[in-house]
Amino acid sequence: MDFNLIAQAWLPVVRQDGSTGVVAPWDIAGGDPPAVDLAAPRAEFRAALLEFLVGLLQTACPPKDDREWRARLKKPPEPEELRVLLAPLQPYFNLFSTAPRFLQDAALRPDSPHTFPVRDLLTEDTTGHFAPEGADQAFCPACAAMALFTLQAFAPAGGRGNMTSLRGGGPLSTLVRGNTLWRTVWANVLPLTEKGVVAATSADLASGGVFPWAGPPIPAHGFTDKTWPEDKHFLHSYWGMPRRLLLLPEETSAPEPCALCAEEGNVLVRRYVSRPDGYDYGDTWRHPLTPYRVQGGNNPTLSVKGSANITGYTHWLGVVYGDPADSRAPLVPAACVRHFRAVQDEPDPAQYPGLGVAGFDMDNMKPRQWCEGRFPLLHVAAEHEDDFRTRITAMIQAAEETRKKLMGALKGALFPEGSPAKIDASLFVNAAAVFWASTEGEFYRLAAQCAPDPDLDTTLPVRTDWAAKLRATALEVFDGETGRGRFRPEEARRVVNARRILLIGMAKALPKLLALPEAPKPKKRKEAAQ
C-alpha cells in the first residue's frame, strides 16, 4: 500500500463558491472557481498545511528574483506545469511505502514494541479536550499525514528525549493571507535573491540536508549532539523532524470511518512507533515563517510563541513591522512578512486581507488553547517606518497604562484598602479583556490614518481621538463592573473616590504618553473675578 503526498489528491479545500473538495498539491491553483482556503478538520492542521505548501513550493520552484515572484503571484502556473515542477520531490513524500517515508525514521521497525495510539500524535491537554473521544481511534491516510506534519512542525516539550520543534515548543506561525489559496501560499515563498535563501540540488535532496528522513538512518539510540543551521541546507527549516516516528498503516476488509474527517476507507492508521532522541535543534535556527526576538550578544534568538493574547493589537506592531524598542528584546518579523512588505508597495486589501497568526498557547508540555487571528497589513513607506513605529508604540503604551489604572481603580472600588485581592483574579481578567476588545477597532482605524504620514504634527488628531477613546472605554468598563451591585454608604464613597482617581490618573498620563498639548489650567477664582 502507498499514499504519495504530491501525486494524490488529499488536501481538503473550500472554493470561492463555498463548495468543498480535495486536491493534490500540484492542483492548488486550478479549478473554477478557485480554492480560497484549506478545509482541514482541525484548526492547527489548517495552519500546518499552509506551511507544508509554502515549504513545498520553496523547495521545488523558488522564484529567482522579485520580478518572477510578482509574475507568479499574478498568474499562477497551470496544474500540469506545477505537477512537472513538483515531480522531482515525489520520491520523498511517500507516507507508507519503503523508505524514505515522509517525516518518519527509517531505522524504526513495524514490529517494535514501542507503539502508541494514533490520537497521541495530536497536541492535547490532560482531559483530551483537543482530541476525538475514544482510545481506539483510526485516522485515514490524509489525516494521519496532517497530524504527523503538525506534530513535527509545532512539537511541544514531550518529556525526556521527545524534542521540541525546530522553532521550540508551540511556535507562532505568521503567514500573509490572500483571497485565494494560491495567493496565500505563494505570497510567503522567498526569492533566491533574499539573504540566505538557496535552491536545492538533487544531491541536497538525496543527502538528508533538506529532508531529514532521506539522509542516513538515525542511530539506534538516537542523536547525542545538537543539529545546527550550518549542518544542514537552508530548506531544512521547513522540514524539521524532532520526533522519531513510524506510522503503522493497516488494510481493513470493510471501509471504516476516520475519527477526524469521517471519510471511510480501507487503509487506516491506528498506531505508530515512537522512540526518543530525534533531531535536537540548536537555538540559532531562524524559521522563515516565524518572528523572533533578538537578545543580542551571545544570547540565542527566541522564536515568538503562541499565547492567549497573541492576536491582540498590542502584538501587531512587532509581528508585522518589527519592534526594535521592545524592552524584552527587539522583535523581528518573519522573513516571509518582511519580504512581502518590501515588495508589495501597496497591497490591495481585497486580494491580501491581512496576516494570519496562529499557534498553541502552551503550558510547558500541555496546550491551554489554540490561538488564531488576523492582523491588518497597512502600507508604510520605508522612509516613514521609524516614525510610524514611534507613533504606534505610544498608542499601545497609552492603552497599557490606561488598563493598569483601570485595574487599580477597580480594586480600590470593590475591595477595602489592604485587601489581598489579586489583579489576575477572574474579575480583573474579564474587565481587561473587555477593555482590549472595546478599543481594538478604533486602534486599527486610527493606525491606518498614521500610515501615510506618521509625522508628529499630522497625527495630532489621531492621538487626540485615541486618548478620548481610552478614557471613555476605561470609564465605561469601570462603571459596568462597579454598577453590578448595591453598596453601603462607605462602599459607595470608595467607588466614587476610585473613579475620581482613575480620571485624574488618565488626565496626567495620557497627554505625556501621546505627546498631546497640555490642557489650559483653570484660572484661580481671584483672576477670574478681575
Backbone shape:
globular
What strand order characterises the main sheet? Answer: 2-1-3
Count of folded domains: 2
Based on CA atoms alone, the radius of gyration comes out at: 27 Å
Structural class: alpha+beta
Report the portion of residues in β strands: 5-15%
- Which percent bin holds the helix content? 25-40%
Distance between the termini: 99 Å
Q: Please, how many helices?
A: 13
Poorly predicted runs of 5 or more residues: 126-130
| Average pLDDT metric | 90
Q: How can the largest sheet be summarized? A: 3 strands, antiparallel
Return the string of H and E elements.
Answer: EEEHHHEHEHHEEEEEEHEHEEHHHHH
Number of strands: 14
In summary, what is this structure?
This protein is an alpha+beta fold. It has helices at 43-60, 66-74, 79-86, 141-154, 181-186, 202-207, 316-321, 335-343, 385-414, 426-450, 460-482, 489-513, 525-529; strands spanning 11-15, 20-23, 35-38, 115-117, 173-177, 226-227, 244-257, 264-275, 280-281, 292-293, 302-303, 331-332, 354-363, 366-375.
